[in-house]
Design goal:
alpha+beta; Ribosomal Protein L22, Chain A; 6 helices; about 250 residues; about 25% strand; 4-stranded antiparallel beta sheet
Length: about 250
């Protein structure tokens, strides 16, 4: 007998995940594909809210998984912003600062600042009213060998961080290096300079009261203006958030 015909799977709109709770920040987190790999991504739905420029960027990806991740992230950002203002998701327009940080077009008169990151199929978005924010998420699978861990550590860790990391071994050391990388990425996004900053001159240390503390260095002259977190991540990932403090202690 011939096997029965397969029933087409209904398109899914992505899978929302519990997002970290950060004071003063709205966080959104999800994955474009269910963890079990089933289902058909709802690309048609995601693409209805995207701009022509975003369509071109999506179509340039060679791998379907990368395209799905990008499209889902744009859909999640646009629909998230529309919960904060009476603007349809497809109507939002964005601009870039001189250093490339994305922002809402001034014509909308919105004080919302945002940051987004995606890695390994997951995406993380932070939205804040009137406060610069940076978020980053990274899959731990990106560093699959001790040699790659050592190369990244040598490139991005400050001396005191390197001393702490050198006391660790194996997976614990790998995860510590990735965690520090995500913190530096989040800070660089928050200040709007990205990879232009020398990461080995950005330093964090653990603190029993505040969890994570940004240290003063030649590159970081205003550490007290920023709160930084390393929230508990989904298994196999590390993530970080950096948010400007409100009021007189925030960025000038």
């Amino acid at each position: 007998m011939d096997p029965p015909p397969r029933t087409p799977q209904a398109p899914h709109h992505g899978h929302r995940l519990p997002a970290p709770r950060i004071p003063g920040l709205i966080t959104l987190m999800g994955r474009a594909h269910p963890a079990d790999g089933t289902g058909t991504p709802a690309e048609d739905t995601w693409r209805t809210v995207m701009s022509p420029a975003e369509h071109r960027r999506a179509d340039a990806f060679r791998l379907d998984t990368d395209r799905h991740q990008f499209q889902y992230t744009r859909w999640l950002l646009r629909t998230g912003l529309s919960r904060l203002a009476p603007v349809a998701p497809q109507d939002w327009e964005f601009v870039a600062t001189p250093h490339g940080k994305p922002a809402i077009h001034p014509r909308f008169g919105s004080d919302v600042q945002f940051s987004l990151s995606h890695s390994g199929g997951l995406c993380l978005i932070g939205l804040a009213h009137g406060r610069p924010v940076g978020v980053d998420i990274q899959t731990c699978e990106a560093l699959s060998s001790p040699q790659r861990v050592a190369r990244l550590a040598g490139k991005c860790l400050a001396p005191a961080e390197r001393t702490r990391v050198d006391t660790l071994t194996g997976r614990e050391q790998r995860d510590a290096v990735i965690q520090l990388w995500t913190l530096k990425e989040a800070y660089a996004k928050a200040v709007g300079l990205g990879l232009r900053l020398p990461f080995d001159q950005i330093a964090f240390r653990p603190d029993h009261r505040r969890g994570i503390v940004l240290q003063p260095t030649a590159t970081v002259r205003d550490p007290g203006r920023w709160d930084c977190w390393a929230p508990p991540p989904p298994p196999g990932f590390r993530m970080a958030v950096c948010l400007a403090r409100p009021g007189p202690d925030g960025p000038r």
